[in-house]
Every structure is written in structure tokens, then in C-alpha cells.
Amino acid sequence: MQKLWTIAATLAALLFMTASPARAETYALRLGLEAPLYTHFSSSGASTSYTIGDTLQPAVDVLLSYKPLPIVAFEVELREGFAGTGTGYQRTGTAIGPGLRISAPVLPVYARASLPIHVEPSPVFVGFRAAGGLEFSLVVLSIYLEAAVDFSLVGGSVATGASNIGPFDETSVSGGAGVWFKF
Predict the structure, then answer these.
(1) Which of these, 34, 30, 29, lies nearest to 177 by C-alpha position?
(2) DSSP strand E in the chain: where?
(3) How far apart are CA 25 and CA 181, in angstroms?
(4) Which of 22, 31, 95, 136 has its Cα between 20 and 30 A from that of 176?
(5) Which residues contact residue 39 at a Cβ distance below 8 angstroms, ignoring those fewer than 6 apart?
(6) How far apart are CA 101 and CA 111, in angstroms?
(7) Class of the domain covering 22-182
(8) CB atoms within 10 A of CB 88
(9) Residue-wise pLDDT tens digits, 26-81
């Protein structure tokens, strides 16, 4: 009987060691809402700025990630934006793009960078997103809070006869929150 308990304890210890936290979150699905807190846009010498107090423009954010190493994750993000019109909301566009996340080994913080491509409506442009956040782990899921800075890199024409979107022509600072399912 003693031998049976020793074998069971050894198998339990091996199972516990192979089910490490790094392996437990190899794949993840993140669902959240975000809103630009400040946005600045310039085109052909004219510029406009607005804040969340001027207009609410929430976005639904879906992020899929693969984490092959304990601190590095490769991600694909899909964002669908909306703008308040006074009588409801209309779509402001879809952005999709690859990203990279670095997580602290012990602390609940992370930093990530991505290259979102605003695919529609026109104009199509490529941007850069730098974000950082806090992740609060619960038993089945995590809750996250994130701040992000987005700016345009290069893109198509804003309107007929207008110049192309260039670096920093569109810049925004946003905040977001949501849930993170890790598999």
C-alpha cells in the first residue's frame, strides 16, 4: 500500500509541474471595450482635436494570442469602432493587425505593440499602437485595464484631392477594459 501512495504522489507531482502557469495560458482570447480619450487629426494643413467629453466613440476589441514563451506573446487584434451621432451610433471602421506582448513574470503588468491596419471605410492606412496595462487574474478568466496610444504611419487619401495620411496625422490616446480567457 505504501508503494501505491508513493507512485500516486509522484504522478501528482509530475502533473503539477507540467501544468505550470506558462503552459496554462498558451492561447488566449481577449474581449473588451475601449474609447479614445483624446484624438487629433490633421490633413492638408487643417487640424481638429476632440476628447471623450466632446464625442463618445467606443470600439469593440477582440484579441487572439499565442504565448510560446512565459513572457512573450504573438497577437492578432480586431477592432470595430463606432461614433455617437445623437440619434444612435454609426460605424467608424474596422482595424486588424499583428502585435507582440511582453508580460512581467511576477507582476500583473504587460506592454504591447501592434501594427493595426484600418481597412474600411476609406481611407486604408497602417498605424502603430503602443499599449500597457494591468491584468487581474481570477480563477477562470482575467480582467484587464489598458491605456493605448495610436498614431498613423502611412495610408491612402482622406478625400478626393486631399493628401495621403502620413506619420502622426491621426493620433489618439485611449483607455479600455475587458475580460481575458486563457487556455
Answers:
(1) 34
(2) 27-43, 46-51, 59-66, 72-84, 89-103, 109-114, 117-120, 125-137, 141-155, 170-182
(3) 9
(4) 22
(5) 49, 50, 51, 57, 170, 171, 172, 173
(6) 6
(7) mainly beta
(8) 8
(9) 899 999 999 999 999 887 677 888 888 888 899 999 999 999 998 999 999 999 99
